[in-house]
Amino acid sequence: MATPGTPPRNRPPGPLAPPLPVDAVVFGEALVDFFPVPTELGRPLEEVTGFSRFLGGAPANFAVGLARQGVKTALCTQVGGDAFGRFVQAQLAEEGIATDGLFQHGSARTGITFVSLTGSAMAGAGRSFLFYRHPSADMLIAPGQIDERAPYLRRGRLFHFGSSSLSREPSRAATLRALELATGKGAQRAAHLVSCDVNLRPHLWPEIKDAPPLLRRLLADCDIVKLVPEELPLIFGTEDVEEGAAKARRAGATVVAVTLGESGCYVDSPAGGIHFAAESVRVVDPTGAGDAFSAGLVARLLAEVAVRDPEDPASSDDLRKRLAGLNAAQIKAAVSHACHLGALACSALGATAGLPPADASPPTRGPAKPPAKSPATR
């Protein structure tokens, strides 16, 4: 973190400045997570007297995960004009994440979450959340604001989103507008990958029945999709992991990962379906493990599709075609890398504290270690 008096190394430019060059644009909530201090872990929230503060929110965690792997990343979100909003902006800037597409709401406050870890933290057991988002600034981002930031969205090779910003208006319309502007159609769409970590939170939806048809429609145009087993019955009408992944693929997705906590994950792609064991680690806190997994998977797949096929020059700008053409070894390397980052996220308190710094683990192309055994990748 920056020392007092030191400006963040990636301070947002003025409103007339050109967009910063990035390779990935992430859309969605950036929140503040409060965890009990280490000496009070295991206590219910009502008994906790001290908290540690972290950057949170699944899209923000994902953006940090990409940035820590050397992927130039921007986050489009909205925070409050309050102390926590300033904390979020400073943390993003410290991670080297471009915030030139970030908005500040005039009255709504930055969302905060209190996280309780009681009993066994393995795979999320004994974990609960207390949200203060009624509504928070991120939930009030509007489509008109997105139009103002169109140049900031039309950059890079990847656009990523989750479902929380789709749960209600006006952020639902803003998310759909951002997706439309970022990806375009025809040749422009072929030059962009779209990834989605569904991360469905039913309590955010005024009518949960609205979620399945909307998500099925959007996931059909995604290239990389990450799900968890609890989402499969609601979205695809099945509890079977392999069947759910196959349905997502048949709908239009190219690479589908279903994370299974301590049981690893299952990934379906044009190269086939495969189960992976989770990597062994001492679990301190599984919060953010799924976000880290998604960031690892996407970063490695981006590295793979960056390599042009000398035998197929026509596909040089068609990232979607290159993604569909990855072989089993390339997919395995990407998933192994994702499992590794998911395990690291479990090794420390906070969603991203366990991830290595940006210069420690670039997502280089090539074979990775085979997966070992066990914890959470949710």
Tell me the layout of helices and strands.
Blueprint: E1 24-27, E2 31-36, E3 51-56, H1 58-68, E4 73-76, E5 78-80, H2 83-94, E6 103-105, E7 112-117, E8 127-132, H3 143-148, H4 150-153, E9 158-162, H5 171-183, H6 186-190, E10 193-197, H7 211-219, E11 224-227, H8 231-236, H9 241-251, E12 255-259, E13 265-269, E14 272-276, H10 289-305, H11 319-324, H12 328-345
Helix pairs in contact: 1-10, 10-12
Can you walk me through this structure?
The structure is a single chain. The chain is of the alpha/beta class and 378 residues long. The protein has one domain (25-345): UDP-N-acetylmuramoyl-L-alanine:D-glutamate ligase (3-Layer(aba) Sandwich). 31% of the residues lie in helices and 18% in strands. The protein has helices at residues 58-68, 83-94, 143-148, 150-153, 171-183, 186-190, 211-219, 231-236, 241-251, 289-305, 319-324, 328-345; strands spanning 24-27, 31-36, 51-56, 73-76, 78-80, 103-105, 112-117, 127-132, 158-162, 193-197, 224-227, 255-259, 265-269, 272-276. The strands form 3 sheets. Strands 4-1-9-10-11-12-13-14 form an 8-stranded mixed beta sheet, with helices on both faces. Strands 3-2-7-8 form a 4-stranded mixed beta sheet. It has a two-stranded parallel ribbon with strand order 5-6. β5, α2 and β6 (103-105) form a beta-alpha-beta unit. Mean pLDDT is 88; it is low at 1-13 and 366-378.
